[in-house]
């Protein structure tokens, strides 16, 4: 609210003193009916966290991306309704609850895909684990995700979620690519 008020006031009167805290929100917080240029990333894995993130983003008209998303399948309709993509941190984890099915995390990508939620796969929170990304995609395929969707979940869909699909994410003329 304060960021929006500052940005509106600054647009109306350039003499308003610069506040770098609110200037940093430029492009994230809409000042009118326009869509924000940049997303806000919400680290949210539990159902309650995801629902709260969606409500917060909807209230302040933010372009949200959920990072983590372990329980995203439980609120898939809500995510789909608000067009909020999910960066699934890892499918190579243990089930969270004692009464969870052993394959709950492995099936998360399949469930999101079937529900029509935009998602991509990440290998976890630490850079050294990026080497495990192909295994995460393979595990998702082994537990029901379409192989083509799994490939897109580690190539094109992350680029689309991050807004860099014009230059990354698929092998096309004019795009950057590293083929290993």
Structure write-up:
There is one protein chain. By secondary structure, the chain is α/β, with parallel strands linked by helices. 37% of the residues lie in helices and 9% in strands. The chain is built from eight helices and four strands. It has helices at residues 2-12, 20-23, 47-60, 76-81, 108-115, 133-142, 147-153, 156-162, and strands at residues 40-44, 64-68, 86-88, 119-121. Strands 1-2-3-4 form a four-stranded parallel β-sheet, sandwiched between helices. The chain starts with a helix and ends in an 18-residue tail after the last helix. The mean pLDDT is 90.
Can you summarize this structure?
The protein is 37% helix and 9% strand.
* Count of DSSP-assigned helices: 8
Shape: globular
In terms of structural class, how would the helical and strand content be classed? alpha/beta
Rg, Cα atoms, Å: 18 Å
Give the end-to-end Cα distance, rounded to a whole number of Å.
47 Å
Order of helices and strands: HHEHEHEHEHHH
Mean pLDDT: 90
Task: Sketch the major β-sheet.
Answer: 4 strands, parallel
Measured by DSSP, the beta-strand proportion falls in 5-15%
Strand order of the largest sheet: 1-2-3-4
- As a percent range, the share of helical residues equals 25-40%
Low-confidence stretches: none
Number of strands: 4
